[in-house]
Amino acid sequence: MLGGTLMFAGDKFKEECGVFGIYAPGQKVAEVTNYALYALQHRGQESAGIAVSDGKSIKMEKGMGLVSEVFNGSKIDRFKGHIAAGHVRYSTMGSSSLLNAQPLLIRYRKGSLAIGHNGNLVNGEEIRDQLEEVGSIFQTTTDSEIVAHLIARLENDDFVESVKEALTFLRGAFAFVMITEDRLIGIRDPYGLRPLSLGILEDNFVLASETCAFDTIGAQFIRDIEPGEMVVIDEEGITSHRFAKKEKEALCIFEFIYFARPDSNLHGKNVHLVRRELGKQLAREHPVEADIVTGVPDSSISAASGVAEGMGLPYEMGLVKNRYIGRTFIQPSQKIRSLGVKLKLNAVKQVIEGKRVIMVDDSIVRGTTSLQIVQMLRNAGAKEVHVRISSPPVVGSCYYGIDTSSTKELLGAQKTVEEIRRFIKADTLGYLSVEGMIASTGMNVDSFCKACFELSYLFDHSKKIRKNFFEKISR
Fold this sequence. Notes:
This protein is an alpha+beta fold. 30% of the residues lie in helices and 26% in strands.
């Protein structure tokens, strides 16, 4: 329970976070950032924040809730400046509280720094412990504050070099947007686990987790930030710095399956078109006699259209989503709590009744929601319910910035496909293969992190920081 409310996102992995940055003299950067955060709202509905610099100081506003709840016209109008960083958050590490909302603003002897983070450091606790040993005092439980303390500890006359040195100690997934009084910085981890793109808006540079934010503000996509790259944007323009060698590319595959907006492009691939290919491949791997195909809104609709096309069946809107329920709602009693899925989804009886239905979803985590949706379709009169999942069984937890269940709660780790079928009470159940999933993206098999499907983790989680770390931060 979070502050009297229950986070309700169905039986799904929770989104990560969304970051945005802009360097634009003469522009209303806070207003632009606000619009961009609306576009990135799907990546985090827990809190939102904007930090703006006028070249001399940084001011910040943040709060709990959706962007529309945190910011209004008067708040945005109070911001004056030409550099901004914005953030929407879902907590994967650190508790849900205003204290942990981002961007995080710190002031230290060399100036100010606002930082927003998408991802998770696998060695964050180790770094925090060592920083506390040499006197650092933490106000939050976020990884962002760990990085800020590192930069302050390592700070020398060249701020950019200090940031680069701090980044060498980090292991895990991260996409950072930072601002100082006079510059905007974008950073992506050496594996590129989390997305970050560079765009241009009227000769000014912008950074965003997804390209849909560029479309919203009228910016043009330039390129993805490379894994292991840091870009610095200031009055001299943009410069690129390499803080680590590029490891094998490992974008989180769930960006294509579930997280990213369908109108975003990742690595030159449109998310909707990739999801449609996932559905077509799913149809090839698991054909079945049926009358209609329907998808669980919203993230599964693209894959469902691909299944329908692949099987030569009509796609029907058999499930309708209540778009005004929000991502959190009060559930005062067990009776109301049990209505969770019904409050969010409803079956269209006139479409479903008497039909053999293929219900497409993007994943099964604990299986409870899948069970309820299958029952909902049967209650609406479906003769048969065939479930098709546009990803492989999830068998492992994520340590890189996605809020997943523990392995003992993951249905794919505890049961066979046939056992899962019986659990959710479907007539048939088919998962997409790992090979089919990768083929559908049109990218190389080594382009993605697939740890939750294959238990092939990128990092040795027991590995400790280099021995000279303590001496470095003790300066």
